[in-house]
Every structure is written in C-alpha cells, then in structure tokens.
Structure prediction request, 469 residues.
Amino acid sequence: MSEPTRLSPLERGLRLFTDVRPGEGGTAVILFANVFVILCAYYFVKPLRDGWIAVSNIGGLSQIELKAYTSFGQSLLLAWIVSAYAQLSARWPRRTLITRVTLVCIVTLVVFWLVRPGMLATDLPGAGVAFYLWVGMFGVFVVAQFWAFAADLYDGERGERLLPLVAIGATAGATCGSFLTQLLVRSAGIDSGALLLLAMLPLAASIGLTRLADARGPLGTPRAERVRPVEPAAAAPPPGGWLGVLGFIMRQRYLAAVAIVALLTNWVNTNGENVLFGIVQDALRSDLVAHGIVDKAEIRAFVRDGTTAFYGNIFFWVNLCALLAQALLASRLLKFGGFAAVLLLGPVVSLVSYSAMALLPVIAVVRVMKVAENATNYSINNTARQVLWLPTTAEMKYQAKPAIDSLVVRFGDGLAALTILIGIHVLDASNRTLLVANVVLATGWLLASLLVAREQGRLVAAPASQAAA
Prediction:
C-alpha cells in the first residue's frame, strides 16, 4: 500500500496548529488523545496529594518542611525504580512495557483509595507521605514513558513537526483534569478521595490508545502491511544498576548537559512551589481563625479540602494558559525560532518571574508569577524537553530519558528540600531570600540551556555531515 498523497479533512484541520502531511493525522490524533487522558488522570490525583500532605503530622515538622523532605525521599526510591525500569525495557516490547506499568498504577490507585483518611482508618500514619511519594513517581514515569514512546514512534523531522501538536493534548488534558477537580470538590461537594477512582478510567483508556498507535505506526499503515519484529524497547542497560545508567548519561556530553538542565529546572520550580505552599498554609490558618473553627476533625477537613481546591484552581489557570501557548505559539516558535528559542524561553520567564516575586513576595504576585512560570514550563518548555530526544538512540530514549526525567528531576527536589532546611533552620531566611536564591539558580539554568542548544545542533548536524561525506 502506497503512502497517502492527499490531505484528509482531519489533516486539513490539524494544519491550523502544525505542518501535518498526508497519512500522519490519524496516529497523531491517537497520540493526542493518549496524552490527554494520561494528564487528565494525573491532575485528578495531583491536587489531592497536596491536600493529603497538608494534614499529615510527622515528627513535628511543619507542612512546608514535610512537603520538601518528602520530595527528596522520591529521589531515593527512584534510584531503585530507574534500574528496574531499565531492565524491563530490555526485556519487554514497548507496548507490553507501557501496558504493564500503567496497570500497576491503576491497582495502586485502588490501594490508596482504601487507606485514605476516613475510609478504613481515620488517620493511617504515614499514608499521606506514601501517597505523595507515589504521585511524584507516577507523574514522572507514566508521562515520561509516553513521551519516550512518541519520540521512538516518530523520526527526527516528523517528530519536530508533530510533537508540538501531540503536546497540545498534554496541556489540554491537564486543563481538563484540573478544571474537573475543582468543579467536583468545590461545586459538586464530592469527597476528594473519589478522585482516585475517577483517575482509573482515563488510565485504562490510555492502554488501549497506546496499543492502537503502536499497531498503526506513524503513517497509519495497517499492521498486516508492516514488517516490524516484536523486539524489546531498548538494548540491555549498562551494568551496575542505576549507577550504571547514570554513568552512561555522564559519558555522553549531550546527555550530561540535558541532565544538568533537568536538575536546575526542577530545583528552581520546586523552590517556588515550596514558597507558594507555605503562603497557602498561612492563609488557610488565618481563615480558620476567621471562621472560628476549633474542632480537630473540622480543621483537618478544612485544610485538606481548602488546599486541594486551591491547587485545583491554580492548576486550572496554569494549564489553560499552557494550552493556549501550546496551541498557538509552540509549533510556530519551533518552526521560525528553532530549538534554541523554545529551550531558552523557560529559564528567561523564570528569571523574570522570580525577580518580580523577590521584589514583592505576597500571595497575589507569587500566584500570578507561578502561573506564568508553570504555564511556560508545561507548554513551550515541555515541547523543548521532548524535541531534544529526537536525534537520540532507542537506549537513550528508554533508559537515559526515564532516568533523567525521574531520578535527576527528583534530585532537584532533594536540593530544593536542602534549600528549605538551610533557609529555615540555619539562616532563618524569609520568603524574599528564598526567591532571590531562585533568581541565581534561574541564571545558571539559562546558561546550561545554552550549552544544550549548542550540543543539540551538533548532534542533529552529525548525520547530515556523514551522509554528505
């Protein structure tokens, strides 16, 4: 069967967003829907994570400390998980790998629904911390493996055209999930724990969409007409477990630069999230006094649901702005400005945002600037993070990418926790001081991004030079 030569009505509509060519529209829409439901599920559980940790009491730690230190704990768990995932990627075909990992996440949602406060126990010690740890790993691995699959499915040139379109599905799914979260919790009065069961539905749908996209291929060729052996997603990982994977990353100049950018990106963003979380808890404590609430059970419910509703609302605005930026700006910026333009926009926006917050660290300013920063991070910067993997090998996609997107990113959380530890207990730093520290880190992030842009240009140019020779 020859490749299509004319655009379908669907593909003509998709050309409003990016350069879609004949035969590419069907699979692109399936990938769009796939990442939409994945992000929708994630934003059902992400606000609940913050609400649950807000009512957890561990060792007399303040809520901002508990949130920061728990984020650091994720990096310790991910060291083992990254090693196990690399082994599985060398054993299972990509379709099997993604299906089984997603099924494990669905089962885990049921477990947390059963142990949430007010279900089987009034307050199971450490359950909120365990849930926070799991959501962080769930958000990293399920999303990272989708983008590894998408980058593996598309070649370099096709990926540069179509990944920005697929990424619109990610921001649209995040917007839908966060909107439904605040609608259900705030307006419909549904218990926030029910979101755990609701998240199972889009995750189950994502399994079917992944298998359909894998069977169709990038041009929608029926499986019977394609010759593709069922092979493992990647070659055997380097020996030494997660240390071997990290060694593999550090031996590649490009991967090492990408890892540094990922580390600084999350360090800066998590520092800002921790400051915002502390300001939100201060505001809720003031509301408790204003409402005269003194009963412990009522206080826990008020703080938990208030935190969940606040983050559901802010996530909605973040994702709505990200959706507009992704749909209207990302592909055009990539086409006319190149990879460097989309990569550098993130640190520039963060640098401006934290400078403004440091000058006026009040909740209204911090909220607006965090919306601007996160919207850029979830749209333009997310596009850059996926495009940079297009010129890499399958081993880099299925082994180095999950390691960077999980272990290295969560190590950034650990450095943010260390920032809180030193800032609060050693320096007695104010919110303004923590925000000034972020201005310095954002500057380093900008410089590291310049290095990645240069190395990516060399990597893309290398095959063309070899072909010419």
Summary: The CA atoms of residues 151 and 159 lie 7 Å apart.
